[in-house]
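Batch job 17 of 40 flagged for manual review because the log was empty.
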Amino acid sequence: MPSEHGGWAFTLEPVLLGLLVAYSWRGVLLGLIALLGFLLRTPLKTVMVDRRRHRILPRTIIARNVATIEAVTLIGLLGVVFVGPTHRFVVPLLMAVPLVAIEFWYDIRSRSRRLVPELAGTVGIGSVATAVALIGGASASVAAGLWLVIAARSVAAVIFVRVQLRRAKQQPYKRAGAHTGQALAVLAVTVGAVVGLVPWAAWGSIVVLAIVHSWLVRRPPSAIPVIGAQQVVLGLFVVLTAGLAFIAP
């Protein structure tokens, strides 16, 4: 699941991208499952942290009940999704399990705001774009390209936001780290475009994202709510541009 810095945006973006490229009712359900998984993370984390510390608090009981309800609902929806002609969508989700496990390992140790779990979680949730596209009938190459684009978007955004938050809080930061994140994102989609997995218009959306991030990190730091709003706008830009590029004839 996405980290605190990612929130709903990093969960919704892969869902929207997958549905834009290959819409289906099962894809919608899969998107709802992803959002429910995001909600499940908080109470589950509370339960696991308290269990690790050998304590049972009133919040532990409440979190356990909420987590149980959400988990049962999630499993029920997943059962409905499995009613269909293809189960190819399971492959990318299974591939993302190690990444989600890494984030959860940090979660229960109250270290979820470190770079490794944030990147693992956001890249892992990107698998939803691939799964939604596959369940809607997209080819394997298109589905793989979607994950690559959303992963590049996530890496660029997570590293940028971490730097911006530190700047906004007047904490020590390294601007070079933000530029490195943008370079890695552009490099990833460039490789994808060269081998034919990513349309060049989708490549361009990540390049624009990297340029905007590099420009913003050189300006006076924005307030934290503004940083979040910027990411929502930039995320929608990438999703719409890349999605249209993948479905263009």
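Reviewer: the log was empty due to a logging misconfiguration, but the result itself is present. Confidence is low (pLDDT under 50) at residues 1-5. Unflagging and moving on to job 18.
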